[in-house]
Amino acid sequence: MGLPEPPELGAAALPKGAFEGRVVLVTGGGTGLGKAIAVEFARLGAAVAVASRGEEHRAAGVAAVEAVGARGLGVPVDIRQPEAVAAAFDRIGAELGLPDVLVNNAAGNFPVPAEDLSPNGWRAVVDIVLNGTFFCSREFARRHMTAGTPGSILNVGASYAWTGGPGFAHSAAAKAGVKNLTETLAVEWAPHGIRVNGLVPGLVPHEDEVEAIRGVPERGQQEDARAPAGRVGRPRELGWAATFLCSPWAAYVSGCTLAVDGANWQRRAMLQPPFVPIREQLGKGPFEP
């Protein structure tokens, strides 16, 4: 039978207006799961700043936010650059106000055997996922500390931060850093009224998946059967979890990483299936230096 389907798209997990008068910043909020999270905050009354390097992505995120009746603002930013992050916060502050909530969702990823991973490929992913999360969090916290106001940070992680991620050494290492950073900053910044939590999506297909991920062999095939829940996740389920963790109803929750994946990362078999090296899984031939 598996787990039941969630309520329909548009249903709310929190009271109407729960984020009325609040400002939410979502990095990478113009596509996929980031956009779903941005829209759910918008449904609850927040003004949402969508930060991204790509103009097309920013426009898509703002359009989705405005479609549910909220105010949206597209903000260009390269989160790998602390100066660009500060400039983005300046603009959001001038047009919407200091963000009450920061969702660190922006990421980069592509499947590759570790021996084929170039130094530039490693740096690119770690820079966006780990360094970018820190730079945005630091800017957010410093401004709230100066203003003497509380705030909430939500870092979007991945379950291979716990388990390791063959084929994704760069992303898995960076996400492990994000999980640790979440727990560290939660302790450091709680005295300042700033909560820091994590959200780990399971298999949640969406229309904005990048080609490198879509191209993983067997991606999109029999996906409902790949989780104990008997189905994949729905983007709105992440939106509900995100808004709860950043809401006053979770005021005593900090340093927590919530996995929304139908128990998939915890699955174990009595007998493991035959081992297939990652090169074979990705359809690559023998390593050639």
From N to C, what is the helix and strand string? EHEHEHEHEHHEHHEH
Report the end-to-end length measured between terminal Cα atoms.
49 Å
Strand line-up across the major sheet: 3-2-1-4-5-6-7
**Which class in CATH terms?**
Alpha Beta
Tell me the count of domains. 1
Structural class: alpha/beta
Specify the overall morphology.
Answer: globular
Compute the number of helices: 9
Give a structural overview:
With 289 residues, the chain is of the alpha/beta class. It has a single domain, classed as Rossmann fold, CATH 3.40.50.720. Helices cover 39% and strands 13% of the residues. Strands 3-2-1-4-5-6-7 form a seven-stranded parallel beta sheet, with helices on both faces. The longest helix has 29 residues, at 119-147. 42% of the residues are buried. The model has no long low-confidence stretch (mean pLDDT 94).
